[in-house]
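Figure 6 in text form: structure in, sequence out.
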């Protein structure tokens, strides 16, 4: 069926960098860092020498909501991947995604493996064989121990890229095709949830699909704010997404929970993610155009990769080793991870990403 030509859209966005989106990326990464440093138990307790609830009696309950920064990331990812894949051939799309993810990821795996292998570090290192598998980014489906705790989200991202590439980029992006992709994935994910088939669950990701789909819908809104189908995609995605977030993260009935998240609190954080990207899509934050936000966006990915595990080492060194108070330790740990992220951006991503992209784009 030939798509009926639409009249020129006077609201269509010009191809400019959305720096507010870069800022939102960093906000989401800092949310996750707050969760990993002060909003959960586990190995971070070893770093602090006691539960983060003892270190942050008031804030730890709020930090517990920081894990929802991942859902915010997924909404942003849906928006960005649709924007970057529109009008791009499959090889170029693959080269762009691979070169964006892999250089910093490889360095992060090597760094964390090397630091955890040091005798003075109190945390257990992954076996050498498992560390090598981690270089493929397929450790999650292969059941191999993870070097980076956050890499499970990359496995979700990779599956989203594959679905989008096969269904939209390969045949060629168009408004109708993107709408059908969103509608088809939403329905298929619901069927996967109902069928309880593990294979369908792996491929279609019912728990995370609404956030990616919502971001894709918001890119359609960015192209044409009058598109009722796009708004419908966003609305349905939010309604389903908040359900999965509440179902997986609401834990008021668990007496052993680190912190009891409320249904309203979870819903508000999910709504924040959708509303923030909506504001960017509609151009309401175009004035938030400071150049430093571009750098902030560039630091987000390497910061996200290294902050958790290497952050434990820094927390232990500052708080237990040097006896610094909790607040100062928290702030200095975040600052040190941002500095490391800048070094990775400057000396790894900046030189290697364009070279890898060019090599992959030219390869037969």
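Output sequence:
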């Amino acid at each position: 069926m030939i798509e009926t030509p639409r009249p020129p859209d006077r609201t269509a966005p010009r191809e400019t960098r959305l720096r507010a989106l870069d800022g939102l990326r960093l906000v989401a990464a800092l949310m996750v860092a707050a969760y990993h440093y002060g909003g959960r138990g586990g190995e971070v307790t070893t770093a602090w020498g006691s539960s983060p609830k003892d270190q942050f009696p008031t804030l730890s309950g709020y930090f517990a909501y920081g894990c929802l920064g991942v859902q915010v990331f997924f909404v942003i990812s849906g928006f960005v991947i649709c924007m970057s894949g529109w009008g791009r051939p499959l090889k170029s799309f693959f080269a762009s995604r691979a070169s964006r993810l892999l250089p910093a990821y490889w360095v992060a795996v090597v760094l964390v493996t090397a630091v955890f292998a040091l005798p003075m570090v109190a945390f257990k290192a992954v076996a050498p064989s498992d560390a090598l598998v981690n270089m493929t980014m397929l450790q999650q489906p292969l059941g191999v121990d993870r070097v980076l705790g956050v890499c499970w989200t990359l496995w979700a991202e990779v599956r989203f890229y594959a679905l989008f590439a096969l269904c939209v980029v390969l045949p060629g992006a168009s408004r109708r095709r993107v709408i059908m992709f969103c509608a088809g994935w939403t329905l298929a994910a619901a069927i996967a949830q109902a069928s309880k088939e593990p294979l369908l669950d792996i491929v279609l990701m019912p728990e995370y699909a609404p956030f990616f789909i919502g971001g894709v819908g918001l890119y359609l809104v960015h192209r044409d704010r009058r598109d009722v189908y796009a708004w419908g995609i966003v609305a349905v995605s939010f309604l389903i997404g908040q359900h999965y977030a509440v179902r997986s993260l609401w834990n008021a009935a668990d007496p052993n929970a680190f912190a009891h998240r409320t249904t309203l609190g979870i819903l508000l954080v999910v709504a924040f993610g959708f509303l923030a990207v909506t504001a960017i899509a509609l151009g309401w934050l175009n004035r938030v155009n400071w150049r430093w936000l571009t750098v902030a966006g560039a630091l987000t990915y390497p910061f996200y990769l290294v902050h958790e595990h290497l952050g434990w080492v820094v927390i232990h060194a500052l708080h237990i080793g040097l006896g610094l108070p909790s607040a100062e330790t928290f702030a200095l740990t975040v600052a040190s991870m941002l500095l490391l992220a800048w070094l990775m951006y400057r000396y790894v991503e900046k030189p290697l990403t364009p070279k890898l992209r060019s090599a992959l784009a030219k390869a037969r």
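Caption detail: The mean pLDDT is 93.
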